[in-house]
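User: Here's a structure from my thesis project, written as structure tokens. My advisor, Dr. K., wants to see whether a designed sequence matches the one we expressed. Can you design one independently, without my sequence as a hint?
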């Protein structure tokens, strides 16, 4: 089978389409023919050697997919369309995955849309709602609001009646996002005073130089969920602000979670979020669709921050 392989850890230029051995599903696993796969920042980091695949997985990026079941497992049959998350390996023509970790695709959702929803919406929902427990009427600050996770968070906020406050360095992305309040960031040290009322929960997809200013924007006993580090892995931490406001700072990621946690997340997605997609309250925000033969260009566009929403690769 074909797969997008990291031949050299030098960024997108080190990617190659190669023939590799097809996976052999184990007991309780599905064998899936991948139709489309979402591109994420973690994939870009993996091409740079900064986010290696977990033990036992090939050096093939790809955290989310949509495909067709080739061989069934408990609760699934051949030919059904499924989507889900995997620690690595989704950028291949076939994928073996635990049947407890996949989600059946609604008839109303295309393969391209299905490949773009699970990672973004699971990340935003798990971080802000399950962990930070943002509530109706509270204020949710969403950094990089034009990203896949950012656009998902805005939709979830609207569905659950939470006030969304989005930041971006691009006014066009702010306008596209549909967030309730928009903050154009020209300098990382300048946005807290323009966030209006204090923030209850922050979905921080940026880190780096944004972090100190994020703490300044928070309400007493607010929660900062550190989800991404696009501005860098190190930050100045004004501890007086953390102490005086009694802030909670929580780091979270999906990739390092074990099978039980991943299964629970898939089941929660099916139970809570999938009905909202079927009812039209949530939708995939797909900005770019490219064939796997043009994967390098897709990675380079993401690296330059030129994309809005999700980028999807198709076979």
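Assistant: Designed independently from the structure alone:
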């Amino acid at each position: 089978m074909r797969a997008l392989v990291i031949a050299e850890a030098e960024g997108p230029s080190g990617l190659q389409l190669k023939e590799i051995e097809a996976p052999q599903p184990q007991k309780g696993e599905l064998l899936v023919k991948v139709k489309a796969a979402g591109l994420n920042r973690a994939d870009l980091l993996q091409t740079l050697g900064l986010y290696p695949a977990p033990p036992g997985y090939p050096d093939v990026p790809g955290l989310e997919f949509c495909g067709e079941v080739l061989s069934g497992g408990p609760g699934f049959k051949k030919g059904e369309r499924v989507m889900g998350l995997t620690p690595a390996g989704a950028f291949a023509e076939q994928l073996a995955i635990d049947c407890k970790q996949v989600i059946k695709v609604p008839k109303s959702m295309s393969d391209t849309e299905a490949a773009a929803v699970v990672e973004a919406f699971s990340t935003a929902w798990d971080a802000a709602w399950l962990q930070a427990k943002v509530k109706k009427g509270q204020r949710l600050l969403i950094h990089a609001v034009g990203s896949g996770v950012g656009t998902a968070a805005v939709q979830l906020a609207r569905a659950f009646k939470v006030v969304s406050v989005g930041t971006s360095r691009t006014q066009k992305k702010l306008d596209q996002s549909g967030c309730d309040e928009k903050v154009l960031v020209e300098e990382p040290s300048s946005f807290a005073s323009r966030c209006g009322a204090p923030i209850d929960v922050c979905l921080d997809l940026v880190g780096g130089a944004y972090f100190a200013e994020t703490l300044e924007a928070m309400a007493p006993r607010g929660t900062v969920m550190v989800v991404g580090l696009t501005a860098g892995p190190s930050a100045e931490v004004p501890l007086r602000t953390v102490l005086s406001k009694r802030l909670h700072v929580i780091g979270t990621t999906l990739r390092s979670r074990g099978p039980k946690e991943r299964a629970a997340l898939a089941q929660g997605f099916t139970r809570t979020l999938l009905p909202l997609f079927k009812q039209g309250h949530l939708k995939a925000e797909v900005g770019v669709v490219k064939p796997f033969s043009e994967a390098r260009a897709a990675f380079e566009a993401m690296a330059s921050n030129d994309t809005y929403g999700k980028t999807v690769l198709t076979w």
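When you compare it with your expressed construct, this may help: The CA atoms of residues 276 and 282 lie 6 Å apart.
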